[in-house]
Amino acid sequence: MKSNVILIILALACVSAAGADDSEHIFADPFIEQAYAPDARGEGMGMAFTAVAEGPAGLFWNPATQLEGHTVAVGYHRADQILDDLEFTALSAAIEIGYLRLGVYQNELAWDITINTSSLGNVSNFRSRVRSGGLAIDLGRLIFGDETTLFASVGVNFKSLESNWNDRTFSKASDKDAGIMLGTRHFLGDTDDVHRGWIGWRVGGVLTNTDRAEIENDWSAVEDKIDPLKLRQRGRAGLVLEGRHGWHYRLGYSLRWLITADWEKTNLDDGWSDSTVKRYGAELTLLGLVSGRVGQVDLGEGSYNNGTTYGAGLRFSPQGSRVGLRGDWASVPYEPTEELGSPFVTQRLDRYSAAVWLSF
Fold first, then answer.
1. CATH of the domain at 204
2. Which of 99, 100, 189, 258 sits a CA distance of 20 to 30 A from 305?
């Protein structure tokens, strides 16, 4: 039963996506699109991360990613799945040089199981990968100088997507994401009294799969061929309210908080969807060391991550050191559709991330 249900998710999502009236020829298979988030911090905040987009995997959330100061950062992410033989990992890296931010990441979903099918025979060793490289320009500091309190950046990601069965490419595509971010900060008290902290806001916007690229499929083992499918295009906007308060002479700001919200729509063949995906999140960080997070995701019925998310993080950067480490954990819910039925049950899945950075 388990194998049959998973095969439906993998195979029919690829082969039969064109049969839906409202999404004809739109590819809806997350196993190639890899909508899985590549860091536990974002997932703990309900994946409402479009206007935050920080850290080594920031370009996944928004190509106009944020890295404060001259920094190199590397991250690793692992996500528990609904099945023990399904594994998701992600690697990411980013560097900021002057007014440029460069980033790369790779996601991989691996399914180590063998299935006998009537059309494909025995299939095994499933792999789905997304590789991306991105470039962002910090327009705020470029135009107004290093001391500006204005956030303004634009960026673009170049992506390649590929799925394999039996070490043979089954489907592949390439596309781009485009993003923008704007915001500002207001220092509390006198303008020179930065020790009291600041409050600010940021807005971000992303268009994923700007070209709605067609997916190249190897249908040699399938008798009934269908028209080419396209990567699904999504438009997403985000808003963040944030602040840092108090000052500790060794650890920096005593308190940091974020309240964030995202709204997303999908572009179908007949235009943009009427439904809106909503995500909300919050984060509280004490002394720059310990963070707590909570979020809410509403993707509609049957999504693997509907409901409330939560998480925590630890950050360590010795005084006077240019090296820092952080570890993050998140818990996300899984709410299956009624059609899938047994053996799937509502449960929570864990995500883990680790990152290291170097300031220069």
1. 2.40.160.40
2. 258
